[in-house]
Amino acid sequence: MSSVERREDTTGFEVHTSVETDQMVVALVGECDLATREALTEALMAAVEQAPTVVVDLKALRFLDSSGLHGLVTAHRAARERGGRLHVVNAGGSVATVLALTGLDELLRPPAGADG
After folding, report:
1. Contact 7, 43 (CB under 8 A)
2. What whole-number distance in Å separates Cα of residue 115 and Cα of residue 89?
3. Concatenated DSSP letters for 3-23?
4. Which of 36, 48, 88, 107 is the most exposed place for a label (fewest CB within 10 A)?
5. CATH number of 3-107
6. Rounded to whole angstroms, what are the CA distances from 46 to 9, 21, 51, 53, 63?
7. Please, which residues have CB within 8 angstroms of residue 45's CB and are 6 or more apart in sequence?
8. What is the pLDDT of residues 8-64, one digit of tens each?
9. What is the pTM of this model?
């Protein structure tokens, strides 16, 4: 069974959430910064509470600053505390660079062989 939820704010930042059998996919679109921090953190924390594995798809994310990084780390820690996992996939451009510079690309990398 799969369901989809979409959240969008006035800045063009969007969160698309889909529930799959054993994981939740949270796709981020647009730019994630201080103005969108609450929407990001709220969506990620809700996903962590609903599924043991959360996959954050960054394919359509054009910008990510420290506020977004904080939201990812906060949700990652919450997932681990619950015995779950949070991973990021499909980062590109400046988003991939920011993740690599901070080491979050390694921390939030899916396990080998995992679908993302």
Report:
1. yes
2. 9
3. EEEEEE-TTS-EEEEEE-SS-
4. 107
5. 3.30.750.24
6. 17, 16, 9, 12, 22
7. 74, 75, 78
8. 444 689 999 999 878 999 999 999 999 999 999 999 999 999 999 999 999 999 999
9. 0.87
